Amino acid sequence: MSTLAEIEVQISALSRAEKAQVLRWVVNNLDETFPGIEAAPGICGGEARIVRTRIPVWLLVQARRLGTSEADLLRAYPTLTAEDLANAWAYHRAHPAEIDQQIRENETGEDAA
Protein backbone atom coordinates (compact mmCIF):
# COMPACT_ATOMS: atom_id res chain seq x y z
CA MET A 1 0.00 0.00 0.00
CA SER A 2 1.35 3.44 -0.91
CA THR A 3 2.00 6.07 1.73
CA LEU A 4 -0.84 8.19 0.38
CA ALA A 5 -3.26 5.26 0.56
CA GLU A 6 -2.16 4.55 4.14
CA ILE A 7 -2.73 8.19 5.08
CA GLU A 8 -6.18 8.10 3.51
CA VAL A 9 -7.12 5.09 5.64
CA GLN A 10 -5.77 6.73 8.79
CA ILE A 11 -7.53 10.04 8.13
CA SER A 12 -10.86 8.35 7.47
CA ALA A 13 -10.69 6.89 10.98
CA LEU A 14 -10.29 10.32 12.62
CA SER A 15 -13.05 12.38 14.17
CA ARG A 16 -14.20 15.55 12.42
CA ALA A 17 -12.20 17.69 14.89
CA GLU A 18 -9.06 15.60 14.38
CA LYS A 19 -9.46 15.91 10.60
CA ALA A 20 -9.73 19.68 10.97
CA GLN A 21 -6.49 19.69 12.97
CA VAL A 22 -4.72 17.61 10.32
CA LEU A 23 -5.92 20.08 7.70
CA ARG A 24 -4.56 22.98 9.74
CA TRP A 25 -1.16 21.30 9.88
CA VAL A 26 -1.19 20.64 6.15
CA VAL A 27 -2.24 24.19 5.32
CA ASN A 28 0.45 25.60 7.61
CA ASN A 29 3.02 23.62 5.65
CA LEU A 30 1.87 24.99 2.31
CA ASP A 31 3.57 28.35 2.99
CA GLU A 32 2.18 31.04 0.71
CA THR A 33 -0.18 28.85 -1.29
CA PHE A 34 -3.81 29.18 -0.36
CA PRO A 35 -5.82 26.44 -2.02
CA GLY A 36 -9.47 27.19 -1.75
CA ILE A 37 -8.99 30.97 -1.48
CA GLU A 38 -9.31 33.28 -4.43
CA ALA A 39 -9.93 36.90 -5.24
CA ALA A 40 -11.53 37.96 -8.49
CA PRO A 41 -12.64 41.40 -9.61
CA GLY A 42 -16.41 41.61 -9.63
CA ILE A 43 -16.92 38.92 -6.98
CA CYS A 44 -17.17 40.12 -3.38
CA GLY A 45 -15.54 43.39 -4.38
CA GLY A 46 -12.36 41.55 -5.32
CA GLU A 47 -11.76 40.52 -1.70
CA ALA A 48 -10.22 37.15 -0.82
CA ARG A 49 -13.02 34.61 -0.49
CA ILE A 50 -13.68 30.91 -0.20
CA VAL A 51 -13.66 29.34 -3.68
CA ARG A 52 -17.11 28.38 -5.00
CA THR A 53 -18.78 30.78 -2.54
CA ARG A 54 -19.29 34.47 -1.95
CA ILE A 55 -18.02 34.18 1.62
CA PRO A 56 -15.10 36.57 2.16
CA VAL A 57 -12.23 35.61 4.42
CA TRP A 58 -12.66 38.82 6.46
CA LEU A 59 -16.21 37.81 7.39
CA LEU A 60 -15.06 34.48 8.81
CA VAL A 61 -12.15 36.07 10.66
CA GLN A 62 -14.41 38.70 12.22
CA ALA A 63 -17.00 36.10 13.21
CA ARG A 64 -14.27 34.11 14.94
CA ARG A 65 -13.00 37.23 16.72
CA LEU A 66 -16.52 37.83 17.99
CA GLY A 67 -16.61 34.36 19.51
CA THR A 68 -18.23 32.24 16.83
CA SER A 69 -16.81 28.70 16.97
CA GLU A 70 -15.73 26.77 13.91
CA ALA A 71 -18.59 24.35 14.50
CA ASP A 72 -21.05 27.26 14.51
CA LEU A 73 -19.55 28.65 11.31
CA LEU A 74 -19.90 25.26 9.63
CA ARG A 75 -23.54 25.09 10.71
CA ALA A 76 -24.25 28.68 9.63
CA TYR A 77 -22.62 28.19 6.22
CA PRO A 78 -23.45 24.63 5.13
CA THR A 79 -21.36 24.95 1.95
CA LEU A 80 -18.20 25.49 4.02
CA THR A 81 -15.90 22.69 5.05
CA ALA A 82 -13.33 22.45 7.83
CA GLU A 83 -10.70 22.71 5.10
CA ASP A 84 -12.22 26.01 3.94
CA LEU A 85 -11.89 27.40 7.46
CA ALA A 86 -8.31 26.17 7.77
CA ASN A 87 -7.51 27.89 4.46
CA ALA A 88 -9.17 31.12 5.64
CA TRP A 89 -7.19 31.14 8.90
CA ALA A 90 -3.94 30.47 7.02
CA TYR A 91 -4.69 33.26 4.56
CA HIS A 92 -5.39 35.64 7.44
CA ARG A 93 -2.12 34.70 9.17
CA ALA A 94 -0.23 35.54 5.97
CA HIS A 95 -2.21 38.72 5.18
CA PRO A 96 -3.38 40.21 8.50
CA ALA A 97 -3.20 43.86 7.39
CA GLU A 98 -5.31 43.16 4.30
CA ILE A 99 -7.99 41.30 6.23
CA ASP A 100 -8.02 43.80 9.11
CA GLN A 101 -8.47 46.64 6.62
CA GLN A 102 -11.38 44.82 4.97
CA ILE A 103 -13.00 44.28 8.37
CA ARG A 104 -12.67 48.02 9.16
CA GLU A 105 -14.05 48.99 5.76
CA ASN A 106 -17.04 46.68 6.06
CA GLU A 107 -17.82 47.73 9.63
CA THR A 108 -17.64 51.45 8.94
CA GLY A 109 -18.87 51.46 5.36
CA GLU A 110 -15.63 53.04 4.13
CA ASP A 111 -14.63 52.64 0.52
CA ALA A 112 -11.33 50.95 -0.18
CA ALA A 113 -8.66 53.54 -0.91
Task: Note the topology.
Blueprint: H1 3-12, H2 16-28, E1 37-38, E2 49-50, H3 57-65, H4 70-76, H5 82-94, H6 96-108
Antiparallel strand pairs: 1-2
Helix pairs in contact: 2-5, 3-5, 3-6
What is the tally of helical segments?
6
Q: Taking strands numbered 1, 2, ... along the chain, how are they ordered across the largest sheet?
A: 1-2
* Basic shape: elongated
Under CATH, the topology is which?
A: Arc Repressor Mutant, subunit A
Instruction: State the total count of DSSP E strands.
Output: 2
Task: Give a quick summary of the entry.
The protein is mainly α. Helix content is 58%, strand content 4%.
Question: What labels describe this entry?
Answer:
Arc Repressor Mutant, subunit A; 113 residues; two-stranded antiparallel ribbon; 58% helix; mainly alpha
How would you describe the overall organization of this protein?
With 113 residues, the chain is mainly α. It has a single domain (16-108), classed as Winged helix-like DNA-binding domain superfamily/Winged helix DNA-binding domain (Arc Repressor Mutant, subunit A). It has 6 helices and 2 strands. It has a two-stranded antiparallel sheet. The longest helix is centred in the first third of the chain and has 13 residues, at 16-28. The chain is elongated, with a radius of gyration of 15 Å. The chain starts with a helix and ends in a 5-residue tail after the last helix. 19% of the residues are buried. The model has no long low-confidence stretch (mean pLDDT 89).
